[in-house]
UniProtKB/TrEMBL annotation:
Residues 3-107 form the HPt domain. PANTHER family: CHEMOTAXIS PROTEIN CHEA, SENSOR HISTIDINE KINASE CHEA. Residues 633-749 form the Response regulatory domain. Residues 475-609 form the CheW-like domain. It catalyses: ATP + protein L-histidine = ADP + protein N-phospho-L-histidine. This is Chemotaxis protein CheA. PROSITE patterns: CHEW, HIS_KIN, HPT, RESPONSE_REGULATORY. GO terms for biological process: chemotaxis. Involved in the transmission of sensory signals from the chemoreceptors to the flagellar motors. CheA is autophosphorylated; it can transfer its phosphate group to either CheB or CheY. Residues 211-473 form the Histidine kinase domain. Its EC number is 2.7.13.3. Residues 236-263 form a coiled coil. Keywords: Coiled coil, Kinase, Phosphoprotein, Transferase, Two-component regulatory system.
Amino acid sequence: MSDIMRDDMMMDLFRQEAEAQTAVLNKDLLILERQPTSAAELEACMRAAHSLKGAARIIGLDEGVKIAHVMEDCLVAAQEGKLLLTAEHIDALLAGSDILLHITDPQVWSKIDPLILRLEQLLQTPAETPRLEPALVETNIDDIASSLLLEATTPLLAPEPIINISENRSADMGERVLRVTAEHLNQLLDLSSKSLVELKRVKPVVDAFERLRRQQRQTTKKLVSALEVLKEQAQTMDVERQLEQILEQFNEYQTQLQKHMQSLDDFNWQATRRAQQLYDTALMCRMRPFADVMLGQSRMVRDLGRSLGKQVRLEVEGDTTQVDRDVLKRLEAPLIHLLRNAVDHGLETPEERMLAAKPIEGRITVRAYHHADKLRVDVEDDGRGIDLANLRELIVKRQLTNQQTAHQLTEPELLSFLFLPSFSMRQTVTEVSGRGVGLDAVHHEMHELRGSVSLTQQSGLGTRFTLEMPLTLSIIRSLLVEISGEVYAFPLGHIERMLSVPCQEIVQLNGRQHIWYQSLAVSLISASQLLQRSDTANERDDLSIVLLRQQETLYGITVDKLLGEQTLVVLPLDTRLGKIQDVLAGAVLENGTPVLILDVEDMLRSTEKLIQSGSLQRVDRGIQQQQTLLRKRVLVVDDSLTVRELEKKLLLSRGYDVSVAVDGMEGWNMLRAENFDLVVTDIDMPRMNGIELVTLIRRDSRLQQLPVMVVSYKDREEDRMRGLDAGADYYLAKASFHDEALLDAVVDLIGEART
């Protein structure tokens, strides 16, 4: 290995060490500013400085050795009670931490000697009591911004410290940490998701074998009938013997086929379970604690507060909340904007807080938590709140609305103006604020994250910003729809509601088709026209509509069918395709079918263009009257009213004729009295359970060929085998139950509803 390569490798190792140890210094020095005698933090900072000194000495960074040594001296003096750390000491130590982090950058070298001199002076003349001095931070606002920019260019997820920082932390750091590139994690997730999808293709093969087995059973039944006819007609014994031999061969083939089907089914079940575990594990590897995005934020808040003459304390709740690393990376900039906004706009000066009978130290709380499969982050301060009267005046002054309308605006409507581009309540532009960029940038970034931002306030008590976004960008909960014979996916987060509306309710307003929804006229747009697909004939006399919202306006996108919800793994499209209009990404369904995930924002823009051009097509031109056909009958047997009615509704929506029974006994009585094409039954029921019902069906000469599906909460392998051994043709666990799973299984067993 050449000396140059060795030097580069050692320098890279030093950078990793510096990232880890300066993170410790930044965090614990802020604690020491409030608790200057805390032994644990003093010990941790001393060891971090000592480690940096040793690392700098190994690679020959003499200036780094000097600055780390004098920092260590200050911390040792504080440990021994010879020095009481004040805000001025913390300023100098934090400045030293910054220099050590960027010691390889020639631009910081000029600051080293003055800082060493300053630390030596502070060490010789320790202050007696802590105090707040607004302008003692050596770096100005531009330096803080530059530091944040430098941090943003380094990896967001800093490596864990290699050594134990203190005795009481050793248990927390016992887990080994391995540095893996985000690219490798993305590849792992991609491969695991593809393996899961590939295994889904085994199920149709198993189902095809099952259909073949049923067909053979029916053929065997016909042979038995033919053999009986021959016996009655006293045909020759040779013909009878040949038919018996054929029948024996058929039975042997049935036995062999059943054996191989069972092996394939077992393999599919085990392999799919393992692939799901692999995918879940790969997905968890992308998840990081929320604390990662807060690295350096306490320091930024503290430095900014001191530069403005304010005492500020940042508290973080839910720092262990797990979030996708890509989401954390995108969340960093909005958080910086909101924290700077809280320090500058939200919190009062110490004098103002004293007059308001508040603690001199202002508090900013960042709270992260999961809510309905999403991440919510609250950024809350205990400052002055927002002057709504002043905000109304500014809106009128900047001609955003007139005086009369401004006085009619509600508080949420008023606050929404703060997110407009270039809007600021500051009359003068400073280094920190006044240009109206911060909140607009937050709104834009949350929009890009498929999330949202909202604001509430209490005058004199403070403000709260709430950010809501997906936990991960790798998967997306979607509504599957059919458009012109193809399946597409709408991200659920953008959908206001899904409707099924009779065609008679369409009204004509301003030359366009609308429906009324909650007293609002909603424009109707055909999804096939938006996607430039040909219309398909629709046999139903109602419309399936997906409602999308753009600010205060609703649009109704008509589709051929609403197929149900499904969680999809997002697969980016090949970059060579460029940006495809109205398309966000791709995905693969559980059955292996590829689908396109629609870009809702793009669709809304396309909708506006169609409306403005006056080229909207009628949404009901392909609808025809429903034909009257003979429908297949399904018997649903379940003691749960909710499950029973849900299954009935799903089957009715697909066109089947459905009857229901509350338990196995009632179901058995109905089967003996009526004809059905399929039985869907639960297992645990009073009077007669599902296993007993299936057993009776298979023993009855008239019903033994009737297809039976078991739908049960019991998803263990032994429970599944009990149902199949009893004679069920299909076993569906309710834990994995969704609309399309049930309907696909029914179609698989008996075909579509109409003959």
